[in-house]
Amino acid sequence: MSRIVNIRKSLPSVVYRAGAWHLMHYLTGRAGPMAATFQLTNRCNLRCVMCNIPNNPRQAVLDLGDFKKIIGELSRIGCCYASLSGGEVLTINNFFEYLREAKRHIPSVNTVTNGVLLDEAAAREFWSAGVDSVSLSLDGMERSHEFTRGLAGSFKKTVGAIENLKRYAPGIKIVVNTVISPWNIDELYELTDFVERLGVLHKFQPLNEHPVFEGQKKAYSVNRDIDIDKVRNFISHLLRKKTVANSAYFLRAIPDYFAGENRRGLFGERCLLPYFFCEFREDGLMYPCLGGKGWGHGYPVERGVENIFFSPEYREDIRRLEGCRFCQKSFSVCYIEPRVNFPVTSFLKYRVLRRFL
Ligand code: SF4
Ligand code: SF4
C-alpha cells in the first residue's frame, strides 16, 4: 500500500473541517482550534545537547483519562490535526492507547519520536493504530547525530526505526526532523542525500532556545554561533530538493534568524495562530501557544477544553498574542509553518504568490 493511501483517507475530513473553521471564524468569530499539539510527557531516554525538556525537575505524563476527555472535546469543536510528542512518547508504557484514542476522534494524527525504542513491535502498533505520520530525528550522520543525542549507537537505532516503519507500517508518512546547528552544518549535505535515499521526507529546524524551568538547578545554554555563509549555501541546496517538507518561506528566513536580523512579512504581522491552534502539556495545562504565553501559565484542563477556549480570559489572551513577536526570537517550525499555511489568506500570500514574486 502506498503512502498516498493514508493521506487520502483523512484529506476530505481535513478539508471539510478547515472550510468550516473559515466560515465560523469570519462569520461568527467562534471557530474552535483546528490543530492541537500534546507534550504527553517530559520524560526522555535521551539528553540531547540542545534540549532542556528532560531537565524539568517536575517529571510527569499526561493522565490517559484527561487525554481522552481532551481529544473528545477537541473533535466536537472541529479539530482535525493532533500531534503527540514529548519528551519521548515511547517511554510511556501505554502510549498506543493514547494514539488509538487520538485516531478514533481526529482525522489526521502525527507522532514525534527520537526512534531509539521504535522496534518491529512498535512499528506494527503504529500501523494498527492508523497514525498518519511519524516524525523521527536525525541530526547528522553518525558523528554529529550521536554527539547531539548523547548516545552511542543511536544513529543506527533511529535509521533502524525508519526501516521498521517502512516495512511493518507501510502507508504511514515518515518525516526526518533535523536541527541545523554549528556542530552539524558540515555534515548536513551528506545527511540530506542519505535521507533522500531512504525515500522519506525531511524537515529542518534551526537551533533555538528552550525555556529554563522553575526549580532547575543545572544551567542550560547552547552556543549558536554559526557561519552564516555556510547556512545560506545549505539553504540554497535545500530549496532545490523535492524531499524537503519545509515551506520555501520558512527556509529562506533561517539565515536571517541566525544572523539576528528580523524578517518582515509574516514575522511583523498580527499572529493568528492561537485562533486555530492550542497546546497541552504533561501537567494537564492548556495553552493558546506555549511560546507566546510562557510555560507554567496555562489553563487547567479540568475546566473543559471548550469552556477554556471560549472563556473571556482565553479570548483576551488570544487577542493579546496577536501582537506577540516571539517567533522572530525563538524560530520554531511548530509555530511558523502553521502560520505560513493557515488561514487561507496566509497560504495564498506565503505559499502561492511567493512563487511568482
Ligand atoms: S529526544 Fe527530544 S525530548 Fe528527548 S532530549 Fe532529545 S530533543 Fe529533547
Ligand atoms: S508569535 Fe509565535 S510564539 Fe507568539 S503567539 Fe504567535 S506563534 Fe506563538
- CATH class, please? Alpha Beta
Q: What general form does the structure show?
A: globular
Identify every distinct bound molecule in the structure, by name, code or SMILES: iron/sulfur cluster
Number of domains: 1
CATH topology: TIM Barrel
Assembly of the depicted chains: single chain
Structural class: alpha/beta
CATH superfamily caption? Aldolase class I
Radius of gyration equals 19 Å
Describe the largest sheet: 9 strands, mixed
Strand content: 5-15%
User: In sequence order, what are the helices and strands, one letter per element?
Assistant: HEHEHEHEHHEHEHHHEEHEHHHHH
Structure overview:
With 357 residues, the protein is an alpha/beta fold. The chain has a single domain, classed as Aldolase class I (TIM Barrel). The protein is built from 16 helices and nine strands. It has helices at residues 3-27, 64-76, 95-105, 120-129, 142-149, 154-168, 188-198, 228-239, 248-259, 273-276, 290-293, 305-309, 312-321, 326-330, 333-341, 344-352; strands at residues 35-39, 81-85, 108-113, 133-137, 173-180, 201-206, 277-280, 285-287, 299-300. Strands 6-5-4-3-2-1-7-8-9 form a nine-stranded mixed sheet. The longest helix is centred in the first third of the chain and has 25 residues, at 3-27. The two termini are 39 Å apart. The relative contact order is 0.12. It binds iron/sulfur cluster (SF4) (2 copies).
Helices and strands, with pairings:
Elements lengths: L2 H25 L7 E5 L24 H13 L4 E5 L9 H11 L2 E6 L6 H10 L3 E5 L4 H8 L4 H15 L4 E8 L7 H11 L2 E6 L21 H12 L8 H12 L13 H4 E4 L4 E3 L2 H4 L5 E2 L4 H5 L2 H10 L4 H5 L2 H9 L2 H9 L5
Parallel strand pairs: 1-2, 1-7, 2-3, 3-4, 4-5, 5-6
Antiparallel strand pairs: 7-8, 8-9
Helix pairs in contact: 2-3, 4-6, 8-9
The structure holds iron/sulfur cluster (2 copies).
The site of one iron/sulfur cluster has 11 residues, from helix 10, helix 11 and helix 14.
